[in-house]
Protein backbone atom coordinates (compact mmCIF):
# COMPACT_ATOMS: atom_id res chain seq x y z
CA UNK A 1 0.00 0.00 0.00
CA UNK A 2 2.63 2.47 1.16
CA UNK A 3 4.49 2.18 -2.17
CA UNK A 4 1.72 3.87 -4.21
CA UNK A 5 0.49 6.35 -1.56
CA UNK A 6 3.72 8.38 -1.67
CA UNK A 7 3.73 9.06 -5.47
CA UNK A 8 0.00 9.82 -5.33
CA UNK A 9 0.55 12.38 -2.57
CA UNK A 10 3.34 14.02 -4.62
CA UNK A 11 1.08 14.07 -7.70
CA UNK A 12 -1.76 15.60 -5.68
CA UNK A 13 0.58 18.21 -4.17
CA UNK A 14 1.94 19.10 -7.60
CA UNK A 15 -1.54 19.53 -9.09
CA UNK A 16 -2.62 21.81 -6.22
CA UNK A 17 0.57 23.86 -6.63
CA UNK A 18 0.01 24.14 -10.39
CA UNK A 19 -3.61 25.11 -9.91
CA UNK A 20 -2.67 27.80 -7.40
CA UNK A 21 0.09 29.10 -9.66
CA UNK A 22 -2.23 29.35 -12.64
CA UNK A 23 -4.84 31.09 -10.42
CA UNK A 24 -2.29 33.60 -9.15
CA UNK A 25 -0.90 34.36 -12.58
CA UNK A 26 -4.27 34.28 -14.32
CA UNK A 27 -5.21 37.49 -16.12
CA UNK A 28 -8.73 37.70 -17.49
CA UNK A 29 -8.40 37.88 -21.26
CA UNK A 30 -8.65 41.26 -22.92
CA UNK A 31 -10.96 42.32 -25.72
CA UNK A 32 -10.74 44.40 -28.89
CA UNK A 33 -7.18 43.17 -29.45
CA UNK A 34 -5.69 44.81 -26.35
CA UNK A 35 -4.67 43.44 -22.99
CA UNK A 36 -5.69 44.25 -19.45
CA UNK A 37 -3.57 46.83 -17.59
CA UNK A 38 -0.64 45.49 -15.54
CA UNK A 39 -1.45 43.94 -12.23
CA UNK A 40 0.55 43.15 -9.07
CA UNK A 41 0.68 39.56 -7.85
CA UNK A 42 -2.67 38.55 -6.35
CA UNK A 43 -3.46 36.14 -3.51
CA UNK A 44 -6.02 33.35 -3.81
CA UNK A 45 -9.57 34.38 -2.84
CA UNK A 46 -8.78 37.92 -1.65
CA UNK A 47 -6.96 39.06 -4.79
CA UNK A 48 -5.17 42.36 -4.05
CA UNK A 49 -7.05 43.25 -0.88
CA UNK A 50 -3.93 42.78 1.27
CA UNK A 51 -2.26 45.66 -0.60
CA UNK A 52 -4.80 48.23 0.62
CA UNK A 53 -6.20 46.94 3.93
CA UNK A 54 -5.51 49.22 6.88
CA UNK A 55 -4.03 51.99 4.70
CA UNK A 56 -5.36 55.28 3.35
CA UNK A 57 -6.65 54.16 -0.04
CA UNK A 58 -5.12 57.08 -2.00
CA UNK A 59 -1.71 56.37 -0.47
CA UNK A 60 -1.93 52.60 -1.04
CA UNK A 61 -2.93 53.21 -4.67
CA UNK A 62 -0.03 55.68 -4.99
CA UNK A 63 2.47 53.02 -3.90
CA UNK A 64 0.99 50.51 -6.37
CA UNK A 65 1.12 53.06 -9.21
CA UNK A 66 4.77 53.89 -8.56
CA UNK A 67 5.61 50.23 -9.06
CA UNK A 68 3.19 49.24 -11.84
CA UNK A 69 2.32 52.42 -13.75
CA UNK A 70 -0.57 54.86 -14.19
CA UNK A 71 -3.18 52.21 -15.11
CA UNK A 72 -3.30 49.20 -12.80
CA UNK A 73 -5.80 46.37 -12.76
CA UNK A 74 -6.69 45.04 -9.30
CA UNK A 75 -9.06 42.42 -7.99
CA UNK A 76 -10.70 42.62 -4.57
CA UNK A 77 -12.14 39.16 -4.23
CA UNK A 78 -13.47 38.59 -7.70
CA UNK A 79 -14.48 42.22 -8.43
CA UNK A 80 -12.40 43.98 -11.06
CA UNK A 81 -10.99 47.45 -10.29
CA UNK A 82 -8.97 49.89 -12.38
CA UNK A 83 -6.72 52.39 -10.59
CA UNK A 84 -5.79 55.50 -12.56
CA UNK A 85 -2.94 57.71 -11.41
CA UNK A 86 -1.96 60.06 -14.23
CA UNK A 87 -3.57 63.09 -15.83
CA UNK A 88 -3.52 61.50 -19.28
CA UNK A 89 -5.17 58.28 -18.12
CA UNK A 90 -7.74 60.28 -16.12
CA UNK A 91 -8.61 62.29 -19.23
CA UNK A 92 -9.17 59.08 -21.18
CA UNK A 93 -11.19 57.41 -18.43
CA UNK A 94 -13.44 60.44 -18.02
CA UNK A 95 -13.84 60.72 -21.80
CA UNK A 96 -15.11 57.16 -21.68
CA UNK A 97 -17.46 57.99 -18.81
CA UNK A 98 -18.95 60.95 -20.63
CA UNK A 99 -17.91 63.82 -22.80
CA UNK A 100 -20.00 66.76 -21.65
CA UNK A 101 -19.55 69.10 -18.78
CA UNK A 102 -22.14 71.23 -17.07
CA UNK A 103 -22.10 73.48 -14.04
CA UNK A 104 -25.03 75.09 -12.31
CA UNK A 105 -24.95 78.48 -10.63
CA UNK A 106 -26.13 78.78 -7.02
CA UNK A 107 -25.76 82.29 -5.74
CA UNK A 108 -27.53 84.06 -2.90
CA UNK A 109 -25.04 86.42 -1.27
CA UNK A 110 -27.34 87.90 1.41
CA UNK A 111 -27.66 84.67 3.42
CA UNK A 112 -23.92 84.08 3.20
CA UNK A 113 -23.11 87.63 4.34
CA UNK A 114 -25.39 87.15 7.39
CA UNK A 115 -23.76 83.85 8.33
CA UNK A 116 -20.29 85.37 7.94
CA UNK A 117 -21.24 88.41 10.04
CA UNK A 118 -22.41 86.08 12.85
CA UNK A 119 -19.13 84.16 12.76
CA UNK A 120 -17.04 87.38 12.69
CA UNK A 121 -18.96 88.78 15.69
CA UNK A 122 -18.23 85.59 17.67
CA UNK A 123 -14.55 85.74 16.73
CA UNK A 124 -14.25 89.39 17.77
CA UNK A 125 -15.78 88.43 21.12
CA UNK A 126 -13.31 85.54 21.50
CA UNK A 127 -10.42 87.87 20.65
CA UNK A 128 -11.43 90.13 23.57
CA UNK A 129 -12.03 87.28 26.03
CA UNK A 130 -9.74 86.02 28.79
CA UNK A 131 -6.26 84.75 27.91
CA UNK A 132 -5.24 82.45 26.34
CA UNK A 133 -7.45 83.47 23.43
CA UNK A 134 -7.55 80.13 21.73
CA UNK A 135 -10.27 79.33 19.22
CA UNK A 136 -11.27 76.01 17.70
CA UNK A 137 -11.09 77.20 14.12
CA UNK A 138 -12.22 73.77 12.93
CA UNK A 139 -15.50 74.33 14.80
CA UNK A 140 -15.94 77.92 13.57
CA UNK A 141 -15.33 76.95 9.93
CA UNK A 142 -17.60 73.94 10.17
CA UNK A 143 -20.45 76.04 11.69
CA UNK A 144 -20.22 78.86 9.17
CA UNK A 145 -20.07 76.61 6.07
CA UNK A 146 -22.87 74.41 7.40
CA UNK A 147 -25.01 77.52 8.02
CA UNK A 148 -24.36 78.85 4.51
CA UNK A 149 -25.07 75.58 2.71
CA UNK A 150 -28.07 74.64 4.87
CA UNK A 151 -29.73 78.01 4.22
CA UNK A 152 -29.24 77.54 0.51
CA UNK A 153 -30.60 74.00 0.51
CA UNK A 154 -33.41 73.95 3.07
CA UNK A 155 -34.16 77.63 3.73
CA UNK A 156 -33.58 80.11 6.54
CA UNK A 157 -35.71 78.50 9.25
CA UNK A 158 -33.43 75.57 10.03
CA UNK A 159 -30.03 77.03 10.37
CA UNK A 160 -29.84 77.62 14.09
CA UNK A 161 -32.39 75.36 15.73
CA UNK A 162 -31.39 72.47 17.98
CA UNK A 163 -32.48 69.86 15.51
CA UNK A 164 -30.28 71.37 12.80
CA UNK A 165 -27.29 71.20 15.14
CA UNK A 166 -28.05 67.57 16.05
CA UNK A 167 -28.30 66.81 12.34
CA UNK A 168 -24.87 68.34 11.80
CA UNK A 169 -23.34 65.89 14.29
CA UNK A 170 -25.29 63.05 12.74
CA UNK A 171 -23.87 63.94 9.33
CA UNK A 172 -20.34 63.78 10.74
CA UNK A 173 -21.03 60.24 11.95
CA UNK A 174 -22.50 59.32 8.57
CA UNK A 175 -19.32 60.57 6.86
CA UNK A 176 -17.14 58.44 9.09
CA UNK A 177 -19.37 55.38 8.51
CA UNK A 178 -19.42 55.97 4.74
CA UNK A 179 -15.63 56.30 4.66
CA UNK A 180 -15.18 52.81 6.18
CA UNK A 181 -13.98 49.96 4.01
CA UNK A 182 -16.68 47.27 3.76
CA UNK A 183 -15.02 43.99 2.78
CA UNK A 184 -18.41 42.51 1.79
CA UNK A 185 -18.78 45.11 -1.03
CA UNK A 186 -16.15 43.28 -3.01
CA UNK A 187 -16.36 39.80 -1.46
CA UNK A 188 -19.99 39.05 -0.59
CA UNK A 189 -18.98 35.84 1.18
CA UNK A 190 -17.18 37.97 3.79
CA UNK A 191 -20.20 40.19 4.43
CA UNK A 192 -20.52 38.83 7.98
CA UNK A 193 -17.34 40.76 8.86
CA UNK A 194 -19.22 44.02 8.19
CA UNK A 195 -22.37 43.20 10.17
CA UNK A 196 -21.68 45.50 13.12
CA UNK A 197 -20.52 48.42 10.96
CA UNK A 198 -23.45 47.93 8.59
CA UNK A 199 -26.02 47.88 11.42
CA UNK A 200 -24.54 51.12 12.81
CA UNK A 201 -24.62 52.76 9.34
CA UNK A 202 -28.23 51.62 8.88
CA UNK A 203 -29.26 53.24 12.18
CA UNK A 204 -27.56 56.49 11.15
CA UNK A 205 -29.19 56.53 7.70
CA UNK A 206 -32.61 55.95 9.29
CA UNK A 207 -32.15 59.01 11.51
CA UNK A 208 -30.98 61.05 8.51
CA UNK A 209 -34.02 59.96 6.53
CA UNK A 210 -36.37 60.97 9.35
CA UNK A 211 -34.82 64.43 9.53
CA UNK A 212 -35.03 64.87 5.76
CA UNK A 213 -38.70 63.86 5.86
CA UNK A 214 -39.44 66.47 8.55
CA UNK A 215 -37.76 69.16 6.42
CA UNK A 216 -39.78 68.26 3.35
CA UNK A 217 -43.05 68.00 5.33
CA UNK A 218 -42.47 71.34 6.99
CA UNK A 219 -41.70 73.14 3.74
CA UNK A 220 -44.73 71.45 2.13
CA UNK A 221 -46.97 72.69 4.99
CA UNK A 222 -45.76 76.22 4.26
CA UNK A 223 -46.83 75.68 0.66
CA UNK A 224 -43.34 75.73 -0.81
CA UNK A 225 -44.02 79.23 -2.08
CA UNK A 226 -41.31 80.96 -0.11
CA UNK A 227 -37.67 81.50 -0.92
CA UNK A 228 -35.21 80.18 -3.42
CA UNK A 229 -33.98 77.32 -1.26
CA UNK A 230 -33.70 73.95 -2.88
CA UNK A 231 -36.69 72.27 -1.19
CA UNK A 232 -39.01 75.16 -2.10
CA UNK A 233 -37.80 75.05 -5.70
CA UNK A 234 -38.42 71.29 -5.89
CA UNK A 235 -41.85 71.60 -4.29
CA UNK A 236 -42.84 74.08 -6.99
CA UNK A 237 -41.76 71.63 -9.68
CA UNK A 238 -44.11 68.75 -10.46
CA UNK A 239 -41.31 66.52 -11.61
CA UNK A 240 -39.70 66.50 -8.15
CA UNK A 241 -42.57 67.21 -5.78
CA UNK A 242 -44.34 63.90 -6.45
CA UNK A 243 -41.62 61.82 -4.87
CA UNK A 244 -40.48 62.50 -1.31
CA UNK A 245 -37.71 59.93 -1.67
CA UNK A 246 -36.35 61.77 -4.69
CA UNK A 247 -36.43 65.13 -2.92
CA UNK A 248 -34.86 63.73 0.24
CA UNK A 249 -32.08 62.12 -1.77
CA UNK A 250 -31.28 65.40 -3.55
CA UNK A 251 -31.34 67.44 -0.34
CA UNK A 252 -29.10 64.94 1.42
CA UNK A 253 -26.73 64.89 -1.55
CA UNK A 254 -26.44 68.68 -1.46
CA UNK A 255 -25.89 68.95 2.28
CA UNK A 256 -23.68 65.88 2.46
CA UNK A 257 -21.57 66.77 -0.57
CA UNK A 258 -21.44 70.52 0.08
CA UNK A 259 -20.69 71.11 3.76
CA UNK A 260 -17.67 69.03 4.72
CA UNK A 261 -15.92 69.50 1.37
CA UNK A 262 -16.03 73.29 1.71
CA UNK A 263 -15.12 73.25 5.42
CA UNK A 264 -12.06 70.99 5.11
CA UNK A 265 -10.78 73.09 2.18
CA UNK A 266 -10.90 76.27 4.31
CA UNK A 267 -9.23 74.44 7.21
CA UNK A 268 -6.36 73.13 5.07
CA UNK A 269 -5.93 76.59 3.49
CA UNK A 270 -5.67 78.24 6.92
CA UNK A 271 -3.18 75.60 8.09
CA UNK A 272 -1.01 76.08 4.97
CA UNK A 273 -1.12 79.87 5.46
CA UNK A 274 -0.03 79.57 9.11
CA UNK A 275 2.87 77.32 8.07
CA UNK A 276 3.85 79.68 5.22
CA UNK A 277 4.05 83.23 6.68
CA UNK A 278 5.37 84.71 3.39
CA UNK A 279 2.25 83.54 1.56
CA UNK A 280 0.00 84.76 4.41
CA UNK A 281 1.64 88.25 4.15
CA UNK A 282 1.19 88.38 0.38
CA UNK A 283 -2.49 87.46 0.74
CA UNK A 284 -2.97 90.07 3.45
CA UNK A 285 -1.37 92.72 1.23
CA UNK A 286 -3.78 91.84 -1.56
CA UNK A 287 -6.75 92.02 0.82
CA UNK A 288 -5.62 95.45 2.04
CA UNK A 289 -5.21 96.79 -1.45
CA UNK A 290 -8.59 95.45 -2.72
CA UNK A 291 -10.80 95.68 0.40
CA UNK A 292 -9.02 98.40 2.39
CA UNK A 293 -8.05 98.39 6.10
CA UNK A 294 -9.11 95.43 8.24
CA UNK A 295 -11.89 97.44 9.85
CA UNK A 296 -13.76 97.09 6.52
CA UNK A 297 -15.66 93.88 5.76
CA UNK A 298 -14.75 91.65 2.83
CA UNK A 299 -17.81 91.51 0.60
CA UNK A 300 -18.62 89.09 -2.18
CA UNK A 301 -18.17 91.89 -4.68
CA UNK A 302 -14.46 91.97 -3.78
CA UNK A 303 -13.87 88.29 -4.50
CA UNK A 304 -13.40 88.51 -8.27
CA UNK A 305 -10.52 90.98 -7.76
CA UNK A 306 -8.68 88.78 -5.26
CA UNK A 307 -6.40 86.94 -7.68
CA UNK A 308 -3.90 85.68 -5.11
CA UNK A 309 -6.70 84.45 -2.83
CA UNK A 310 -7.96 82.41 -5.78
CA UNK A 311 -4.46 80.97 -6.28
CA UNK A 312 -4.25 80.05 -2.57
CA UNK A 313 -7.59 78.20 -2.79
CA UNK A 314 -6.56 76.34 -5.96
CA UNK A 315 -3.22 75.31 -4.47
CA UNK A 316 -5.06 74.06 -1.37
CA UNK A 317 -7.42 71.99 -3.54
CA UNK A 318 -4.40 70.57 -5.39
CA UNK A 319 -2.57 69.39 -2.28
CA UNK A 320 -5.64 68.52 -0.21
CA UNK A 321 -8.48 67.46 -2.53
CA UNK A 322 -11.50 66.63 -0.32
CA UNK A 323 -12.33 63.79 -2.73
CA UNK A 324 -8.95 62.04 -2.86
CA UNK A 325 -10.36 59.35 -5.13
CA UNK A 326 -13.10 59.60 -7.76
CA UNK A 327 -15.02 56.37 -8.28
CA UNK A 328 -17.23 55.14 -11.08
CA UNK A 329 -18.11 51.92 -12.81
CA UNK A 330 -17.45 51.00 -16.45
CA UNK A 331 -20.99 50.46 -17.77
CA UNK A 332 -19.62 48.62 -20.79
CA UNK A 333 -16.26 47.23 -21.94
CA UNK A 334 -13.97 50.09 -22.93
CA UNK A 335 -10.40 51.04 -23.68
CA UNK A 336 -8.18 53.32 -21.58
CA UNK A 337 -4.56 54.04 -22.60
CA UNK A 338 -4.62 51.07 -25.01
CA UNK A 339 -5.69 48.74 -22.22
CA UNK A 340 -8.86 46.73 -22.18
CA UNK A 341 -11.25 47.49 -19.30
CA UNK A 342 -13.98 44.85 -18.80
CA UNK A 343 -17.61 45.80 -18.21
CA UNK A 344 -18.46 46.30 -14.53
CA UNK A 345 -14.90 47.28 -13.55
CA UNK A 346 -14.89 49.79 -10.73
CA UNK A 347 -12.63 52.65 -11.79
CA UNK A 348 -10.67 54.61 -9.19
CA UNK A 349 -9.12 57.89 -10.34
CA UNK A 350 -6.49 58.77 -7.77
CA UNK A 351 -6.98 62.51 -7.67
CA UNK A 352 -4.53 62.88 -4.79
CA UNK A 353 -1.69 61.13 -6.63
CA UNK A 354 -2.31 62.91 -9.96
CA UNK A 355 -2.21 66.34 -8.31
CA UNK A 356 1.19 65.48 -6.76
CA UNK A 357 2.71 63.96 -9.89
CA UNK A 358 6.17 65.44 -10.47
CA UNK A 359 5.79 64.98 -14.24
CA UNK A 360 3.05 67.65 -14.15
CA UNK A 361 3.96 69.81 -11.18
CA UNK A 362 7.26 71.44 -10.25
CA UNK A 363 8.10 70.78 -6.59
CA UNK A 364 4.74 69.03 -6.23
CA UNK A 365 4.80 68.71 -2.44
CA UNK A 366 5.41 72.43 -1.87
CA UNK A 367 2.56 74.85 -1.18
CA UNK A 368 3.15 77.39 -3.99
CA UNK A 369 0.03 79.40 -4.96
CA UNK A 370 2.20 81.36 -7.43
CA UNK A 371 1.94 78.47 -9.91
CA UNK A 372 -1.72 79.42 -10.43
CA UNK A 373 -0.89 83.11 -10.90
CA UNK A 374 1.75 82.34 -13.52
CA UNK A 375 -0.31 79.74 -15.43
CA UNK A 376 -3.99 79.60 -16.17
CA UNK A 377 -4.74 76.06 -15.00
CA UNK A 378 -8.27 74.75 -15.32
CA UNK A 379 -9.34 73.05 -12.06
CA UNK A 380 -12.79 71.88 -13.12
CA UNK A 381 -11.66 69.12 -15.47
CA UNK A 382 -12.67 70.62 -18.80
CA UNK A 383 -9.31 71.28 -20.49
CA UNK A 384 -6.68 70.15 -17.96
CA UNK A 385 -6.69 66.94 -15.94
CA UNK A 386 -3.62 67.52 -13.72
CA UNK A 387 -5.95 68.09 -10.78
CA UNK A 388 -9.62 67.19 -10.48
CA UNK A 389 -10.86 68.52 -7.11
CA UNK A 390 -14.43 68.72 -8.43
CA UNK A 391 -14.32 65.65 -10.64
CA UNK A 392 -15.21 66.21 -14.25
CA UNK A 393 -18.01 65.80 -16.75
CA UNK A 394 -21.62 64.92 -16.14
CA UNK A 395 -20.93 63.22 -12.81
CA UNK A 396 -18.72 66.11 -11.69
CA UNK A 397 -19.65 68.38 -8.80
CA UNK A 398 -22.78 70.49 -9.49
CA UNK A 399 -21.90 72.79 -6.56
CA UNK A 400 -18.56 74.12 -7.87
CA UNK A 401 -19.62 77.74 -7.93
CA UNK A 402 -21.29 77.70 -4.52
CA UNK A 403 -18.40 75.71 -3.04
CA UNK A 404 -15.73 78.09 -4.39
CA UNK A 405 -17.73 81.14 -3.33
CA UNK A 406 -18.10 79.87 0.23
CA UNK A 407 -14.40 78.93 0.48
CA UNK A 408 -13.15 82.27 -0.93
CA UNK A 409 -15.54 84.33 1.16
CA UNK A 410 -14.90 82.64 4.51
CA UNK A 411 -11.13 82.43 4.00
CA UNK A 412 -10.86 86.10 2.99
CA UNK A 413 -12.78 87.20 6.10
CA UNK A 414 -10.74 85.01 8.46
CA UNK A 415 -7.44 86.36 7.12
CA UNK A 416 -8.45 90.00 6.68
CA UNK A 417 -10.08 90.46 10.09
CA UNK A 418 -7.86 88.40 12.38
CA UNK A 419 -4.33 87.39 13.13
CA UNK A 420 -3.89 83.66 13.80
CA UNK A 421 -1.02 81.78 15.45
CA UNK A 422 -0.25 78.24 16.48
CA UNK A 423 -0.19 78.45 20.32
CA UNK A 424 2.93 76.20 20.42
CA UNK A 425 4.78 78.55 18.04
CA UNK A 426 5.78 75.49 15.98
CA UNK A 427 4.73 74.40 12.47
CA UNK A 428 1.28 72.85 12.38
CA UNK A 429 1.01 69.09 12.04
CA UNK A 430 -0.30 68.46 8.51
CA UNK A 431 -1.20 64.75 8.85
CA UNK A 432 -4.37 63.51 7.21
CA UNK A 433 -7.09 61.81 9.22
CA UNK A 434 -9.61 59.24 8.07
CA UNK A 435 -12.96 60.06 6.52
CA UNK A 436 -14.61 60.64 3.21
CA UNK A 437 -13.33 64.18 2.73
CA UNK A 438 -9.64 63.86 3.65
CA UNK A 439 -9.87 65.86 6.88
CA UNK A 440 -6.96 67.02 9.02
CA UNK A 441 -5.91 64.47 11.65
CA UNK A 442 -5.52 67.23 14.24
CA UNK A 443 -8.23 69.91 14.58
CA UNK A 444 -7.10 73.53 14.17
CA UNK A 445 -6.80 75.21 17.56
CA UNK A 446 -5.28 78.68 17.11
CA UNK A 447 -4.80 81.84 19.13
CA UNK A 448 -6.64 84.83 17.76
CA UNK A 449 -6.18 88.59 17.84
CA UNK A 450 -8.58 90.89 16.06
CA UNK A 451 -7.53 93.43 13.43
CA UNK A 452 -11.08 94.78 13.22
C1 LIG B 1 -14.79 72.92 -2.11
C2 LIG B 1 -16.00 72.40 -2.21
C3 LIG B 1 -16.36 71.16 -2.98
C4 LIG B 1 -15.57 70.19 -3.52
C5 LIG B 1 -14.06 70.09 -3.49
C6 LIG B 1 -16.46 69.24 -4.16
C7 LIG B 1 -16.04 68.11 -4.83
C8 LIG B 1 -16.88 67.17 -5.40
C9 LIG B 1 -16.45 65.99 -6.09
C10 LIG B 1 -15.01 65.57 -6.33
C11 LIG B 1 -17.55 65.32 -6.47
C12 LIG B 1 -17.59 63.97 -7.21
C13 LIG B 1 -17.41 64.17 -8.69
C14 LIG B 1 -17.21 62.90 -9.47
O1 LIG B 1 -17.57 61.81 -9.01
O2 LIG B 1 -16.68 63.01 -10.57
C15 LIG B 1 -18.70 66.07 -6.04
C16 LIG B 1 -20.00 65.70 -6.25
C17 LIG B 1 -21.09 66.42 -5.81
N1 LIG B 1 -21.06 67.66 -5.20
FE1 LIG B 1 -19.41 68.71 -4.70
N2 LIG B 1 -17.75 69.65 -3.98
C18 LIG B 1 -17.75 70.82 -3.28
C19 LIG B 1 -18.84 71.59 -2.91
C20 LIG B 1 -20.14 71.27 -3.19
C21 LIG B 1 -21.29 72.08 -2.83
C22 LIG B 1 -21.21 73.42 -2.13
C23 LIG B 1 -22.40 71.38 -3.23
C24 LIG B 1 -23.85 71.77 -3.12
C25 LIG B 1 -24.42 72.32 -2.12
C26 LIG B 1 -21.95 70.15 -3.83
C27 LIG B 1 -22.78 69.19 -4.33
C28 LIG B 1 -22.35 68.03 -4.92
C29 LIG B 1 -23.27 66.98 -5.37
C30 LIG B 1 -24.78 66.98 -5.27
C31 LIG B 1 -22.47 65.98 -5.94
C32 LIG B 1 -22.92 64.70 -6.59
C33 LIG B 1 -22.91 63.62 -5.52
C34 LIG B 1 -23.35 62.30 -6.14
O3 LIG B 1 -22.88 61.92 -7.22
O4 LIG B 1 -24.17 61.68 -5.47
N3 LIG B 1 -20.58 70.12 -3.80
N4 LIG B 1 -18.27 67.21 -5.39
From TrEMBL:
Heme binds at residue 397. SUPFAM superfamilies: Cytochrome P450. Pfam families: p450. Its cofactor is heme. The keyword Zinc-finger does not apply. Keywords: Heme, Iron, Metal-binding, Monooxygenase, Oxidoreductase. PROSITE patterns: CYTOCHROME_P450. InterPro entries: Cyt_P450, Cyt_P450_CS, Cyt_P450_E_grp-I, Cyt_P450_sf. GO terms for molecular function: heme binding; iron ion binding; monooxygenase activity; oxidoreductase activity, acting on paired donors, with incorporation or reduction of molecular oxygen. Belongs to the cytochrome P450 family. PANTHER family: CYTOCHROME P450 98A9 (PTHR47944), CYTOCHROME P450 FAMILY 1 SUBFAMILY A POLYPEPTIDE 1 (PTHR47944:SF16). This is Uncharacterized protein CYP791B1. It comes from Selaginella moellendorffii (Spikemoss).
